[in-house]
Design brief:
heterotrimer, A alpha+beta (about 290), B alpha+beta (about 775), C alpha+beta (about 170), A: alpha+beta, Uridine Diphospho-n-acetylenolpyruvylglucosamine Reductase, domain 2, Uridine Diphospho-n-acetylenolpyruvylglucosamine Reductase, domain 3, Enolase-like, domain 1, 3 domains, 4-stranded antiparallel β-sheet, 13 helices, about 25% strand, C: about 170 residues, alpha+beta, Ubiquitin-like (UB roll), DNA polymerase, domain 1, 5-stranded mixed β-sheet, 5 helices, elongated
Chain lengths: ~290, ~775, ~170
């Protein structure tokens, strides 16, 4: 009911944190704690060492440069939701953050923590994949960058190696004609999604689709890009029948499993419905002048 | 629809009764000063935990506790060996005949996942956890039986070696159903299934036990029933007067704290260690092992003539009782009595059975058998209406029971049966139909009526006592063994005493829930508390008043009939200037040796048990009738169902506190909505898959609309001031009402709960296959 | 690898502000804030309902923001301000929200009430004129099994209207 005993470290700098993680590869990083501490309360995680990174400076910024946003790993979900920069430059991220859990979870949970936890039904990993985000990962020896799609490798599994920590996320800023859509099937507001789809696309003056990205979550161990659907849409005028057709390719591209919340067949069918809704939302938004000056 | 307090409640003929008096306990609760069971601290208190079985069916070969006993901080590790009388006596008959022995700690056989095997007490949570992890049990898994139907097959594994798996079989026979079916123009036959549901009170099970200076074992626990002190005494092999159970305000009960929870375990540990012990269950432990609501399989065959009158109901109810009787026999009895619904049916045959399985135990939960059957009998009425081309309202109107009619048990209904007005008020209050929110959305409406007993079955000689006494300053003390689960049980006693004795509520203190210090009132269950202890306080207050009135009359120089007690004073009716403070009356009573305190009781009507072959006889004291009307929106692409409107109407006889009555109705309605749409304790071969609050879904504020409670007061009921019980009645109607609304929206009727999006989606897909041009 | 069993961590001194008053406790670093509040500081008004962050009965305000006390370590609030329901209102006077809950009977068993009040308080502070739907969404993360939520929303809505009322009723 309470966490098992552990040794606790609260480093004061990123370097100090990385040195600790290098020396203690089994240590768990404590960021928002909204995923780790429940596991500890339930006795499902019993780390011997916990490294609390909440005190590290420089990891909670939101900056914009060269058409990209850089968001620190410690930015809380609530801040993602309320940041004016994110609302203007990458509104899908603000929207996704607003759907996470409940207000209490959002005041503590972090972007980096959610991505590192890699729950396949979670909103932020899905959006990171749809955005083609890049994760900045640091270790004592240096820094590397990983595209989100490569970062998530399986159920609750990422390509972080011991001694590494997510320090930031880079993602492209939305253009003036970019539209986004996020559709999730949840039993109750705030629950983990059964399935979810995230679509981001640009539309040119002629109504033709430029860049398009469609990612689906809850249909496998990690969020997946639906490239067949994307290929169908790219360069074409986005009519409703075309969007339906693109969404129609999704069931064959996914291999969900059955669990107590939903059967595989239902997830497959709903992935198509959510994809259609996300794409439709994105197209509608792309059609309007989305960005306020 | 929101009223400011005090506004829009009907004027009451009484001063205090019928007013929305703020409850004293709510004032404490909003300040966080209420001490629930887990909030109690004593010096030297140990942490108690239960070691639970991991298999649903197994033989225990060996239990090794020696290592655990030697760990630092561990004060005790107990197994069955260490329990003086390792038996809880249960009643497998439902007639009050206790003859079934359930182990407190099991030593040889495991019969459900989570069954207690050992207990530990240690100085800290961490040390208690370490002790649990150091206990080793060698199991030999055995075949088990995991559904009610298989439990009855020949050759099914026996849950108890010495008997077959049939726990109870109640029968009701009225008339001759064969004759009835023979004369019918329409027969509808269906099977309905309701699921296992958890109480999910926000307060997990908890309690503290200690042995006091007089050697009395005290247990302060979140319980609905302080009378369990007798059971605990026999377990500890102590005289009954050496065990005391105290019930603080409970954070929700709903029947889940009606059987003993922590009491025997924490008492054993305190008695062994001679130190205070606290035991608090985790939510996951509660979800895993606490008894649940019975899943029912209900086979209904209902017949009517062309004019819409019911002629026959043949009903078979099968319930999964888990491995121990607990309250299953009584739950099934309530299902038997209510099974045919609030309708006149000349020919009724009901068989209600519960069987043993190796699934998690099942026992009392708000609605108690009479709520699950609502799903079946109301769905049947709707199907009949469709077949006969009648409206849902019309078919019910033609068959509603009326006061004076006999239930299928042969007993006459003695109080008002206001179903026609209840139903029309509920349906009317839905207002205008909402428009669908999008192209794939469909809106539908449905309503359902129900009958729910209140009070215990009359063969139990139910009784409650209360003590009321004046202090010399005119303030008042009430002592009642009632337990308060949040439904205002304590506050209602204050209201009743205030009305009769004229003491203002803020000058009344009520002490509740102490088996040594408050007169026993019976537990808070079966929607009996207002009926029993309310009547007990009413009688005690009236008798005390009658004792003191002559003294007041003498002092006021008036006739006794002209003296009233009101507003902390005794006064002459019609001459308000002739009045004296009640303290003055009390002083004069003392001078004249007239008592100013009184103990009295209330006994419910008593009758012999029903005939076991026919179910004929007197059963429950009375019934509450209701109707809920709902509006839903269905997302036809996902099967998702959103509740848009929910109206809940009940005749409560008299509402002692209209706000409390509305609150009970609203809460019960939402609990029903949760069972209708989303709640499910999922087991797989006896293994519980929903042991997280994240996976056992109860409604949040976003999942339900405002519940509009419509309260009718017929002025007839067996409770004090003609009140009727209202705790349980609101739970049943949402189940069929939502199913009916879905049918109205998309043309599909579901017969299994919960009505999940996936189930509805599959049904819609099946319907689409049949009619590709678009059914809904 | 350092194992906790081998080296039981020393208690550390934790200082923070609770309901406006400085407090100090010796705690193990692996104790949650909820455990520190309940077991060490006697602040049992913060409840334990699930340990998963789902139910909301452990809600406290951390520098004014509602959080799950069961999902943060005690040591993580060093130097910060924590508010429980006892920090609402003042000695002898109910906060308008508390008065509204009493007047509307927005509590039955009361177990969800401390958390509910704190979430409502933080919400009204940031959204002083909410619609009923906004209130409903604001409390969506706090479970209640007794009231069906309608009266809770009534009370919060009434309180939003009442917020200018300076008179408190004495407890």
């Amino acid at each position: 009911m309470y966490p098992s005993p552990f040794v606790y470290h609260a480093p004061a700098s990123v370097d100090e944190a990385l040195t600790l993680l290098a020396r203690l590869p089994e240590a768990k990083v404590l960021a928002g704690g909204q995923s780790l501490i429940p596991l500890m309360n339930l006795g499902l995680a019993q780390p011997g060492v916990v490294v609390d990174i909440n005190g590290l400076p420089g990891l909670d910024g939101v900056t914009e440069a060269d058409g990209h946003l850089r968001i620190g790993a410690l930015v809380r979900h609530h801040a993602l939701q309320t940041s004016l920069t994110i609302q203007r430059r990458c509104p899908i991220l603000a929207e996704a953050a607003s759907l996470i859990g409940n207000i209490r979870v959002r005041h503590r949970g972090t972007l980096g923590g959610s991505l590192a936890h890699a729950d396949p039904a979670a909103e932020l990993p899905l959006v990171a994949v749809a955005l083609g985000a890049t994760l900045e990962i640091r270790r004592a020896e240096g820094t590397r960058e990983v595209p989100a799609e490569e970062f998530f490798c399986g159920y609750l599994t990422t390509n972080l190696t011991p001694g590494e920590m997510v320090t930031g996320v880079g993602l492209p800023v939305f253009g003036p004609a970019t539209g986004h859509g996020l559709a999730e099937l949840v039993r109750r507001a705030g629950d983990f999604a059964i399935v979810a789809a995230c679509a981001i696309l640009d539309v040119d003056d002629a109504g033709r689709c430029g860049h398009v990205s469609l990612a689906v979550g809850g249909v496998g161990p990690q969020p997946l890009r639906m490239r067949r659907a994307e290929a169908l849409l790219a360069g074409r005028t986005l009519t409703d029948p075309l969007i339906k057709e693109a969404a129609g390719t999704v069931p064959d591209e996914v291999s969900p499993e059955s669990d107590i919340h939903a059967s595989a067949a239902y997830r497959r069918a709903m992935a198509r419905v959510m994809a259609y809704r996300a794409l439709t939302m994105a197209r509608t938004r792309a059609g309007t002048s989305w960005l306020t000056p | 629809m929101r009223k400011s307090p005090g506004e829009a409640f009907r004027p009451s003929p009484y001063r205090i009764i019928g007013t929305p008096l703020p409850r004293f306990d709510v004032a404490d609760k909003v300040q966080g000063t209420t001490l629930y069971a887990a909030d109690w601290r004593l010096p030297g208190m140990l942490v108690g935990r239960i070691f639970r079985a991991v298999y649903p069916s197994a033989r225990i070969r060996r239990i090794t506790v020696e290592e655990a006993r030697t760990l630092p901080g561990v004060a005790a590790v107990l197994t069955a060996h260490d329990v003086p009388t390792n038996v809880i006596h249960e009643d497998p008959t439902g007639l009050g005949l206790t003859s079934f022995a359930t182990p407190v700690l099991t030593a040889e056989r495991v019969r459900y996942q989570g069954e207690p095997i050992a207990l530990v007490a240690a100085e800290s949570e961490t040390q208690a956890q370490a002790a649990l992890e150091a206990i080793k049990v060698e199991y030999e898994p055995l075949a088990g039986v995991f559904d009610a139907d298989s439990a009855l097959e020949p050759g099914a594994p026996r849950v108890h070696e010495d008997r077959n798996n049939l726990l109870i079989h109640w029968k009701l026979r009225q008339g001759d159903v064969k004759d009835g079916f023979g004369r019918a123009d329409v027969i509808v036959e269906r099977t309905y299934r309701t699921q296992r549901v958890d109480h999910a009170y926000l307060e997990p099970e908890a309690g503290v036990a200690w042995v006091d200076g007089d050697g009395v074992v005290n247990i302060r626990a979140a319980t609905q029933v302080i009378e369990h002190f007798r059971e605990i005494a026999q377990i500890l092999h102590l005289p009954h007067n050496k065990v005391r159970v105290i019930a603080p305000f409970v954070g929700g009960g709903f029947g889940g704290k009606e059987d003993m929870t922590v009491e025997p375990y924490v008492a054993l540990l305190a008695w062994k260690t001679k130190r205070p012990v606290r035991m608090v269950w985790s939510r996951q432990e509660s979800l895993l092992a606490r008894p649940k609501r019975h899943p029912f399989t209900m086979r209904y065959k209902t017949a009517a003539t062309q004019d819409g009158r019911l002629v026959a109901q043949e009903i078979a109810i099968l319930a999964d009782a888990g491995p121990y009787p607990l309250l299953s026999p009584r739950v099934l009895f309530a299902a038997l009595v209510a099974g045919s619904g609030p309708y006149r049916v000349p020919h009724v045959k009901i068989d209600a059975r519960a069987v043993f399985t190796n699934n998690v135990p099942t026992s009392a939960m708000r609605g108690f058998g009479a709520m699950q059957v609502t799903f079946a009998y109301e769905s049947q009425m709707d199907l009949l209406a469709e077949r006969l081309g009648l409206s849902a309202l019309e078919i019910r109107s033609r068959n509603f029971l009326r006061k004076g009619d006999r239930l299928p048990t042969g007993e006459a209904l003695e109080t008002s049966v206001a179903l026609p007005s209840i139903t029309s008020r509920a349906v009317e209050a839905l207002g205008e139909r909402s428009r669908p929110s999008g192209p794939s959305a469909r809106v539908g409406r449905g309503f359902a009526c129900n009958i729910q007993p209140y009070g215990r079955t009359v063969w139990f000689r139910d009784r409650a006592q209360a003590w009321i006494g004046f202090e010399v300053d005119g303030s008042l003390v009430i002592r009642s063994g009632v337990t308060d689960l949040g439904g205002g049980q304590a506050a209602s006693l204050v209201q009743i005493a205030a009305e009769i004795l004229g003491v203002r509520p803020d000058r009344i203190t009520v002490h509740i829930g102490d088996s040594s210090l408050t007169p026993l009132a019976g537990g808070t269950f079966a929607t009996r508390q207002l009926y029993m202890s309310g009547n007990a306080v009413l009688r005690t207050a009236r008798e005390l008043r009658a004792i003191m009135i002559p003294v007041a009359a003498a002092l006021l120089e008036a006739a006794e009939a002209d003296v009233q007690f009101a507003d902390n004073h005794a006064s002459v009716i019609g001459s308000p200037e002739r009045r004296l403070a009640l303290a003055r009356i009390v002083a004069e009573c003392a001078r004249r040796s007239v008592p100013t305190a009184h103990l009295a009781g209330f006994q419910s009507a008593h009758a012999a048990p029903v005939d076991l072959e026919t179910g004929q006889g007197k059963t429950f004291p009375d019934y509450t009738f209701g109707c809920h009307a709902v509006e839903v929106e269905v997302d036809t692409e996902t099967g998702g169902v959103t509740l848009l409107k929910h109206v809940a109407c009940h005749d409560v006889g008299r509402a002692l506190n209209p706000q409390s009555v509305e609150g009970q109705i609203q809460g019960g309605a939402v609990m029903g909505a949760g069972q209708a749409l989303m709640e499910h304790v999922a087991l797989d071969a006896g293994v519980n898959l929903t042991t997280l609050f994240a996976s056992y879904l109860i409604p949040t504020a976003m999942d339900v609309p405002d519940v509009r409670a419509v309260v009718l007061e017929s002025g007839e009921g067996k409770g004090p001031f003609n009140a009727r019980g209202i705790g349980e009645p609101p739970t049943g109607p949402p189940l069929p009402a939502v199913a009916s609304a879905i049918r109205d929206a998309v043309g599909v009727r579901l017969e299994e709960l919960p009505l999940t999006p996936e189930r509805l989606y599959e049904a819609l897909e099946a319907a689409r296959q049949e009619k590709p041009e678009g059914a809904a | 690898m350092e194992t906790a069993a081998a080296a039981a961590p020393e208690p550390v001194r934790l200082s923070f502000v609770l309901n406006g008053h400085p407090v100090e406790a010796w705690v193990a670093p692996y104790e949650t804030l909820l455990a520190v509040l309940r077991d060490t500081l006697g602040a049992t008004e913060a409840k334990c309902g699930c340990g998963e962050g789902v139910c909301g009965t452990c809600t406290v305000l951390l520098d004014g923001a509602p959080i799950n006390a069961c999902l943060i370590l005690g040591v993580q609030v060093r130097g910060r301000a924590v508010t429980t329901v006892k920090g609402l209102g003042t000695e002898g006077t109910l906060h308008p929200l508390q008065r509204a809950f009493v007047a509307h009977e927005a509590a039955q068993c009361g177990f969800c009430t401390p958390g509910m009040l704190l979430v409502a308080h933080a919400f009204l502070r940031d959204h002083p004129h909410p619609t009923r739907d906004e209130i409903r969404a604001a409390i969506a993360g706090n479970l209640c099994r007794c009231t069906g939520y309608t009266r809770i929303i009534d009370a919060i809505e009434a309180s939003a209207g009442m917020r200018e009322d300076p008179s408190g009723s004495t407890v």
